[in-house]
């Protein structure tokens, strides 16, 4: 599989911390993205060239407006967000492992996200019947979804050891900050596990890639077995690869 990466332009938000940021990032990125991508055009009457990509993955864990926008502009190319993909994979894991019908099994998935504002945003998107997002509906969410717990740190500040022009107080080698992030991720995981019905923990941010081990560490610390961890980026790539290779 060959991957091509497109990231936010200089006019896009440094970090997508709410739905307004998601809208702003779409506005900033879509014109340039359409210029660089045959088959994507902001002009509905355009007869652009055939798409050069087999699929598009939007690596922002949110009900991001770029997803339906690209779906409408290039309907022949599968476009998916890591939010939707992670939920699909989490539910399939619960179902395929038989957790959905065994008495006493952990039958739900929960999300560990970043800033506190995402708790309501993600919960509402999951409970919605229609619109951008997964849209399980209230009954579907009640059946499969345990809830969202947040670490209290925005996506742009998840990796404090990396130099950042956004936050001049963050520099290399600040291990205390890294430990603080790790502890926050493990604490949020613990709050989900305290429910007693969570069989899958989903990482609710692309910036959490690589933090699966912290989640697993909390699972082991509590003496639990059988709890799976889903990385939304890996889930998105896997789902799209499956669609393409299956010829669906």
Task: Outline the structure in words.
This protein is of the alpha/beta class and 248 residues long. 41% of the residues lie in helices and 11% in strands. The chain has helices at residues 19-36, 66-73, 82-96, 118-127, 137-144, 175-193, 212-221, 232-245; strands at residues 56-58, 79-81, 108-113, 145-150, 198-203, 228-231. It has a four-stranded parallel β-sheet with strand order 4-3-5-6, sandwiched between helices. It has a two-stranded parallel ribbon with strand order 1-2. Strand 5 (198-203), helix 7 and strand 6 (228-231) form a beta-alpha-beta unit.
What are its keywords?
248 residues; alpha/beta; four-stranded parallel sheet; two-stranded parallel sheet
Which structural category do the helix and sheet elements fall into?
alpha/beta
Helix content: 40-55%
Strand portion, in percent?
5-15%
Order of helical and strand elements = HEHEHEHHEHEHEH
Question: What's the SSE blueprint?
Answer:
Layout: H1 19-36, E1 56-58, H2 66-73, E2 79-81, H3 82-96, E3 108-113, H4 118-127, H5 137-144, E4 145-150, H6 175-193, E5 198-203, H7 212-221, E6 228-231, H8 232-245
Parallel strand pairs: 1-2, 3-4, 3-5, 5-6
Helix pairs in contact: 3-8, 6-7
Summarize the structure.
The protein has 248 residues and is an alpha/beta fold.
């Amino acid at each position: 599989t060959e991957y091509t990466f497109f990231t936010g332009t200089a006019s896009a938000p440094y970090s997508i911390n709410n739905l307004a940021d998601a809208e702003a990032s779409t506005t900033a990125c879509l014109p340039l993205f359409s210029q660089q991508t045959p088959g994507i055009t902001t002009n509905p009457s355009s007869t652009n060239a055939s798409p050069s990509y087999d699929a598009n993955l939007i690596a922002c864990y949110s009900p991001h407006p770029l997803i339906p926008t690209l779906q409408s502009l290039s309907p022949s190319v599968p476009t998916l967000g890591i939010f939707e993909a992670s939920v699909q994979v989490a539910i399939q894991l619960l179902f395929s492992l038989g957790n959905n019908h065994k008495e006493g099994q952990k039958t739900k998935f929960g999300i560990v996200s970043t800033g506190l504002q995402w708790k309501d945003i993600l919960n509402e998107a999951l409970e919605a019947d229609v619109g951008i997002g997964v849209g399980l509906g209230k009954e579907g969410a009640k059946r499969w979804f345990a809830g969202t717990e947040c670490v209290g740190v925005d996506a742009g500040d998840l990796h404090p050891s990396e130099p950042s022009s956004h936050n001049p107080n963050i520099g290399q080698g600040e291990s205390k900050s890294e430990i603080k992030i790790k502890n926050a991720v493990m604490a949020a995981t613990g709050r989900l596990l305290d429910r007693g019905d969570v069989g899958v923990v989903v990482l609710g941010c692309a910036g959490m890639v690589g933090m699966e081990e912290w989640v697993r560490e909390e699972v082991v610390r509590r003496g639990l077995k059988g709890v799976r961890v889903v990385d939304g980026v890996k889930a998105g790539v896997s789902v799209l690869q499956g669609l393409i290779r299956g010829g669906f």
